[in-house]
Automatic annotation (TrEMBL), chain A:
Record-linked Gene3D superfamilies: Mannitol-specific EII, Chain A
PROSITE patterns reported in the protein's UniProt record: PTS_EIIA_TYPE_2
Annotated keywords: Sugar transport, Transport
Native organism taxonomy: Bacteria, Bacillati, Bacillota, Bacilli, Bacillales
Name of this chain's protein: PTS sugar transporter subunit IIA
Automatic annotation (TrEMBL), chain B:
Protein name stated in the entry: PTS galactitol transporter subunit IIB
GO molecular function per UniProt: protein-N(PI)-phosphohistidine-sugar phosphotransferase activity
Matching SUPFAM superfamilies: PTS system IIB component-like
Stretches assigned to the PTS EIIB type-2 domain: 3-93
PROSITE patterns reported in the protein's UniProt record: PTS_EIIB_TYPE_2
Keyword annotations of the record: Transferase
Recorded coiled-coil stretches: none
Organismal lineage: Bacteria, Bacillati, Bacillota, Bacilli, Bacillales
Pfam families reported for this sequence: PTS_IIB
Biological process annotations from GO: phosphoenolpyruvate-dependent sugar phosphotransferase system
Length: 162, 93
């Protein structure tokens, strides 16, 4: 299993956009520029979000976890974006109801059915209102990185997972 | 006989992995045998004759001959106990 790429370069603060498509393009294009995903990743993730929405009305701050098929990914990563202003994402499992998302965790996974413990830890973070509020108000990418590394236990993941 | 439970999301990659594991644990805690199948929502049609329950994070408007339970609460934590109760009720039928 390849290691997860995660550092300040995939953490974006003050991301601006009028709608979810603009936001997804901004976050996705950053990953394309860094060679972490193929160019096809951006249209694929926008299309997938339209078909299967990923907005989650979590405690305090709504999040979204856009993701798409593994074939568009070069290197496994999680890109974190704090939006300057909340942008409406359709709620997962709904067809029209939206939630104002402030935090986007774009998942670029390179294997299906993997990453269980990472995803479980991420969902755990979604249930911690204080952590989400801290992330939304953070202006220092290194602090965002440190907090998520601790919460998601990246070091253990790289060494220990099947 | 173990019930066949489909766990589906849009991609079959991320959210169904988390939900699958949560149901596995729930069944184990309650000593219920389940046959879990983690699939993409688009693949549900292939299991129409064999499945007993669909638990999904994706939207579906299709009518199925088995109950459908929305699993979003496993991701947000809000209302997850109700969802677990619903699933358990179906498994114990």
């Amino acid at each position: 299993m390849s290691e997860l790429f995660f550092n300040e370069s995939v953490i974006l603060l003050d991301v601006e956009g009028d709608n979810k498509e603009e936001v997804l393009a901004t976050i996705g294009n950053n990953l394309v520029e860094r060679g972490l995903v193929k160019e096809s990743f951006v249209p694929a993730i926008i299309k997938r979000e339209g078909e299967f929405a990923t907005g989650l009305p979590t405690a305090g701050v709504s999040v979204a976890i856009p993701h798409t098929d593994v074939e568009h990914v070069n290197k496994k990563t999680i890109s974190v974006a704090v939006l300057k202003n909340p942008v409406d994402f359709v709620i997962m499992g709904d067809d029209s109801e939206t939630t104002p998302v402030q935090l986007v965790f774009m998942l670029a996974m390179d294997e299906a059915h993997s990453q269980l413990s990472l995803l479980q830890k991420l969902m755990q973070v979604f249930q911690e209102e204080d952590t989400l509020k801290y992330l939304v108000n953070q202006k220092d990418k290194t602090k965002v990185k440190s907090l998520l590394e601790e919460k998601l236990d990246f070091v253990a993941l790289e060494g220990g997972e099947r | 006989m173990a019930k066949t439970v489909l766990v589906a999301c849009g991609a079959g990659i991320a959210t169904s992995t988390v939900v699958n594991s949560a149901i596995e644990e729930l069944a184990k805690e309650n000593n219920i045998k389940v046959d879990l199948k983690q699939i993409k929502i688009a693949e549900v049609g292939a299991y129409v004759d064999t499945a007993d329950l669909l638990v999904t994070t994706a939207m579906t408007k299709t009518e199925y001959p088995f109950p459908v339970i929305n699993a979003r609460t496993f991701l947000t934590g809000i209302g997850v106990e109700d969802t677990k109760k619903q699933i358990l009720e179906e498994l114990q039928k």
